[in-house]
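agent> fetching stored inputs for the adenosine-5'-diphosphate docking request
agent> found them:
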Amino acid sequence: METHVNDSDAFGSNVLSVALIGPHEQRRRNLANALAMSRAATVREYSAYPAELKDASRLLEHDFDAIIIDLEASPEYALELVERLAAANTATVMVYSTRVDPNLMVRAMRAGAREFLADPIDVGALSDALGRASSRRQVPGGAKETGGKLFVFLGGKGGVGVTTVACNFAVALAQDCMRNTVLIDLDLPLGDAALSLGMTPQFSAADALLNVDRLDSNFFSKLLTKHASGLSILGAPGRFPNVPASNEAIGKLLAVARRDFEFVVVDAGSRFDLTDADWFKQAEAFYVVMQAGIPELRNTHRLITEFFKAEEPKLELVLNRYMPRSLGVDEGHIEKALSRPIQWKIPSDYATVRRMQNEAVPLASEDSTIGKIIQQMARSACGMPSKQEKKKGFSLFK
Ligand SMILES: Nc1ncnc2c1ncn2[C@@H]1O[C@H](COP(=O)(O)OP(=O)(O)O)[C@@H](O)[C@H]1O
Ligand SMILES: [Mg+2]
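agent> prediction call returned; pasting tokens
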């Protein structure tokens, strides 16, 4: 493999080391220049793809923080290369192409690419992508600088929509926000998060919790099932009557998950017993899902007052199956009764939810109001601007 080296350590240790693989000379040069100008990366250029896929592993010996691959010269081969390199899970893999084609983007993402750079390269977008790669970088010693963010979904009562919202939020993180995300169903033993995404995984959270002594990154990864959106899933077992799940074991499971994923989404159902665990306090945010009925309101009130003392900033209220001007309790009354604002309102849409269940198409990838609101929740959780604020013509995943 021919290489052009262009790396100097002049920028210090805060700089990413990047491999740039681009058979097309001029386009590679342009990107290399943009990377050099960013002052955030040192670049090693490769003017050809590795001759064979198995040669790809040689690239990894260099310990690059990021590997950027031209998709255009030979898209199929490049995608296989992405998959191979992303599976190794050390460097952030990015792709670039002048063809901003949603299908190609989805395929690249499924192969494991974290970023899709539209060529000609936008300097701002490049710098954002480098920033994200940087925050994902391994520190010496192997541990990530920061663990992934934990989002916990729960409800005061079964049937309010915790699973529906949690699953689609996780899909939106993986698909719309292109974040490395895992969904863990802790509504044991009979949670149905995987099922609601049309999946029947071989392994479950019970396998992790029953083998907690040998639970590490490698073991954990083998228990996961990949959804078409790119989301990894660890479902509930659905058959063990009793899963011995101490909060300690769950804590370890989540710690392993947070080491490997940027976002860990937990469906906690109505498991109030989980709320006093140590790991619970590490959550980035809690989404309490509720409906506008009196029993739901009462339980939500209990949940909030008991577990989320006075000014818990991390708590977001999600009013599900909301119907404007319905005869039920209205929004104002709810906010007053709970003495906090409702952050998210998800309309009732039986037909859409039903279609999702029957056809296993996540709401979050649909052009429905529910889908859009849940996408918005996910974008806000990862600090992305809302869809409307975004540049026109850049709606990748419908
Ligand atoms: N916004 C909604 N509109 C219509 N039906 C919904 C909505 N949210 C949830 N449902 C339906 O309500 C039922 C319970 O939802 P689920 O997410 O399983 O609740 P939970 O996990 O809180 O028990 C499911 O049949 C689901 O399809
Ligand atoms: Mg549920």
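agent> quick read of the result: Residues 3-136 form a domain with the Rossmann fold fold (CATH 3.40.50.2300).
agent> awaiting further instructions
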